[in-house]
Amino acid sequence: MSTSSPMQTSSPLKPEIATCADLSPPELQALAERLADQLRKDEETLSKGGIPSPLAMNMPRKGTAIDKQTRLAHLVAHSLWPPRNEAEEIWSLIKYGQLISTLSKVVKGGWRKAEAERLALKHAPRVHMDRGAFCTLKTRGVSRAVREPRAMPVALTDAAEFRPFFDFLKADQVPWSNTNPDPGARVEFPRGIFYSDGRMDLCKQVVGPGSIGPLMDCLRHNSHIRHFLLGNNVIGPAGARAISEFIAQNESVITWYLAGNCIDVNGVARLAAALAENDVVEALWLKRNPIGPVGARHVAEMLTTNVRLHTLDLDNCGLLDDGVVSLVAGFKANDTLRHLYLSANGITPAGAVALGEYFTDCSTKGKAGLESLYLSVNRIGDSGAAALAKGLRSNRGLKRLVVSSNQIEAAGAAALCDALTGHQTLEVLDLGVYTSTADMGELPNRIEDAGAAAVARLIRTNPKLVYVNVAHNGLTRGGWGEVVGAAIDSPSLVHLDAVERGLRKEPHQQRRLAEQLERNILGRYGISRAEFLRTELKFVRQPDNVRYIESLYRTRDFQNRGTRRGVKKFWDEGDETLKMVAMSA
């Protein structure tokens, strides 16, 4: 069940209970036994501290209309406690009533609590919750969406729909005559797009395990593809094997975007083995694949020998702290990785300590180390932020630090800002809120005015800082004013996100901020702020090579508000697609 879905308050057996008057006596007895069996399971669940199913909420009580007509309550009671005489018959009905009452109260209470938490999480990215709710929700465990990543729900595509694009790839031709086509030039097929910069885009087209083999066979004949975009295609173990075999022989594809493809621990082991001595691939994007802590070990081992890879995306891969600790061992032996994505992995202060030690190791050895660290939608909190800050205090190579939605409060924000004061390369600091925070069952930061003051000091002391995000952090006008005032005085800042829903901002300061950002953008990029927000902002927050994973298929869905709102996030119960994909090895 998704973290954003309300708890169910009706049982799948409710329709049968409602229509039980139409059943024959044998059918009615069979129903009573099934109901009794579920109630036994619910009683056991309750005894272990769990929340029982909602069945008790739908069960008839003794003497109700249904019971008078069918005696269903009597039949269930007798199935639970078979009476040997009249006295025991009465006693079984009393115990039945007590059990139904107890289970119903627990279900109602659990539902109310779950609903309150759901609503708090749902609104957390937009309306900052009170401190009590924030502290209560911090005690929640890591959600299933984080522990067990899944691709977005899709339906497999018929192989025939890919044939025109596959034939084009196999022919190894380009659709333009000049050798320097427009950078945005492309040719689009019913399923598949080829761009003039060498991108092959099949994102969300659902190649699946059945068509991945033919696709890789076609690419063996192609010399123009440099960037392989296959996001959310559920290729599974069969796909991981096919791609690994291709990588071992290929000398042209440098970018592999494989997000949401059901690549498990065995699949990533194959990919890691293929990349261990590879000197071609520069970027590997594995977001939303169930790699897990064990899979992280394979990636770490690969990093000890690979000297080409500079971008590694492991967002929402179920790594947890154990996986991060394993990865850090690989990072310490590597000096080429520059951009690392670790968002939505259930990382706590323990994982942050390991990352802090990595930065300390880089400083000790004089290594350049990471330029970008994306750590959003985790749970490092103040102690984790302090551990990270300890490692960053002597660092002089980091350009981007993104720690949005991490349960960081004022003390953690101050620790980070103090450690980064005077940093000569830091360009981006993001302490804001991440869009998928609620979906992942996580919480935003809450730095409040004290944390905002620390951010303001950082803006005033860092000569290269260009991007700062403190959105939805519980700021008042005082804290907001401090950050904005520092931004107004900054000669380098080109973007500040300090949105706080419900906060009335000072119009004069807003106007002065807009004017200063406009001046800084014009001086740095030679374009207007409106043009900057449309074309360049994403390349400030992210490294330049993200342009090679830009997908028209993903962009269209994102830009279409109706499509974006209607996107299906969770698989239907009983959908066999993932099971079939997993068996494709």
From TrEMBL:
Coiled coil: none
Record-linked SUPFAM superfamilies: RNI-like
InterPro entries: Leu-rich_rpt (IPR001611), LRR_dom_sf (IPR032675), RanGap (IPR027038)
Single GO MF annotation: GTPase activator activity
Protein name from the UniProt record: Uncharacterized protein
Organism: Klebsormidium nitens
